Amino acid sequence: MTARGWFLFSLMGVVWGIPYLMIKVAVDSVSPSVVVFTRCALGAALLLPFALRRGGLLPTVGAHWKPLLAFAVIEIIGPWWTLTDAERHLSSSTAGLLIAGVPIVGVALARFFGATETLGARRVCGLALGLAGVAVLTLPHLTGGDARSLAEVLLTVIGYATAPLIAARHLKDVPSLHLTASCLTLAALVYAPAAILGRPDTLPAPSVLAALAGLGVVCTAIAFVAFLELIKEAGPTRATVITYVNPAVAVTAGAVFLDEPLTPTVLAAFALILTGSVLATAATAGPRRRIRPVPWSARQTSRAGGRVESLTGLPEERPGSTGQGDG
Exposed end of the chain (fewer CB within 10 Å): N or C? Predict the structure, then answer.
């Protein structure tokens, strides 16, 4: 992966590791619909003017409206509500840890849909190490969650794994700014009625307002543009490997802001996750090109010294020739 790809990967590993903490803070005071609407509305308000100034937004949306609609539903409209609703009953760390199953589901879906992205032994090993690290982190946290919340997170995982495949196959020519602005605008319009009906009676606490602002500006507007650029730079499967780093960030945020213990087990899991991420995002060497022998009938003889030239343009000795003239 290029230096630009690693920068985007590192950025996404951080900014999509902290939303779980912010969602947990916000959802304790406002409904999931209000959280999703505020997040999308803030992101759209920031990005839409730049997309309009750049030009070509409406023609781009009109030409790609079907995959764009599918991407918006599968990546934003569905998963953001299910994840937010699940965090009413699950801790932010548990939610972040469960989302780390996205790369595994992404690999399976990529194979199912016939993606041509190569998976070598190194990348498979990286995915396995990352999954092992997630398991080490997850097992102590999988307590206190009901079946509905776990199912909601599972639906979120499937959506997060599927959407990058749609973006890579059908939306790779769409500017990231146009795609993000249009999807966030659509999602905000969808959730506006529910957000109006479920709005709080009083102004939320400053911490809740700060969490909503962070979700909309940092974790949505900035992060989404960076994520789409990462998909174009590294491919959909490698891009989703950020979800191996996100749980580490989520656990760290819990330790810093919620005084959760940072145990040796957690540190060991960090090592597994980061090592797995490096291996899983490594480029796979392409297959070697085999030089097939050119049939004698396809070779062109040259009158110069009894030599022949193959279709590759390289001189060869004709069988039985000594390299001298035939006379």
Answer: C
